[in-house]
Amino acid sequence: MEHPDTHPPRIIDSLIDLSLERAVPLRVIFEITYRCNAACDFCYVVPGREPELTTDECCALVDALKAEGCLFLTLTGGEPLVRGDFFEIAAHARAAGMALEVKTNATLIGREAAARLRELSVMNVDVSLHASTAAAHDAVLRVPGAWQKALDGIRAMKAEGLTVTVKCPLTRDNFEDRDAVRALATSLGCDCVFDLTLSAKQDGDLSPHGGRITRERLEQFIAENEDDYFASVISCIGASERAELREQRPCSAGISTCSINPYGDVFPCVQLCCIIGNTRRSPFGEIWRDSPAVKKLRGVRFADLKDCNACPNVVHCLRCPGLALLEDGDLLGRSTEACRQAEAYRRVHEQHERLGAVS
Amino acid sequence: MISLETRIAKSPDLAVQDHFEETFVLNLSDMTVHCLGDIESGIWSFIDGGRTAGSILDWVCEEYDVERERAKRDILEFLTDLSEKGLVSVA
Prior knowledge:
By secondary structure, chain A is α/β, with parallel strands linked by helices. Chain A is built from 14 helices and nine strands.
């Protein structure tokens, strides 16, 4: 694989770098509702009891995000289209000049909704698909007919010329179905991305971990798909560049990205369950600039990660500080799942190197 | 071909980030990203669908105190470039 430095710098990279340098929330995930018309066992969402942000509150928040430099807004949930004002919020964001992405189970997308998404020039729609068969997918969502509705929704969006990506959390139950899921996505004209990480629920409930694939299957999947995943890029980093990692920020959470839940709670990212403010109590701009928690987060460097920067697997690691905090209790400590995956990436990478040396 | 009488409008399929000194314009129809510098950003903000290239020229000359003929060539070239990239429509 080519080293990323051989590519000329892209304008988007300049924008990303500026956003990181000046802590501008370029990309925001807005969970507009935690209501959902499905009930997946491993869903990380834990709905609250407060009333959700009203339409006016959502639109005002969109304006505040725009004022702080947000360009990419992802509308998600729960199931975002459960909200009757979904298109009003989306249109407001587009009128403000933002680029939209939507994450959905697509069961509520018919021809009309697909046409409206197209009118809004939605960049990409991520559709959750858990299996290649109706029986298996519907069993995950616990909704009879969900699979067929999802496929109908995908077809309607593709007919409108929208970019649709199938997102499939890889679990013990659907691992053997992965090739068929990918083939189904391809037949629908969609890319297919598998998510290897089943997160704990937002309240720390670890029950989703029961669905995680085994280490052996993780290695098998990585070996089958090594070129597609980020870790294969980071593996290209040489010894001299590893030393520079220490001075770098571990991720962009709270720096150039954040997430907001349906109740106005602001988080550094959707995985990092540390509230930095609430938009019903303080303006977003104030939260983004002045929150003590986010200021502390922005000061974190790789060197502060107690066990990580000396770890031999660091160049294969996709460590998420949110996962480390949620599942292991320490923002700066080990993430058990990241360690497990990094070890798998390293073993596969070394095996490929050995095979390459032999040939 | 764009003349001073041509009305200029921004294309509808755009996302714009003007938080920094430059303006970043994302063309959602082809997913290209464009960066406009200082004066270009000023011109971009002046385009409202009703103004002509000539009124943009008038504004630039007043705002930046530049020589008119040179500015005319540069602005028409810039607007033509924006049009070719699908960032503006002309009428």
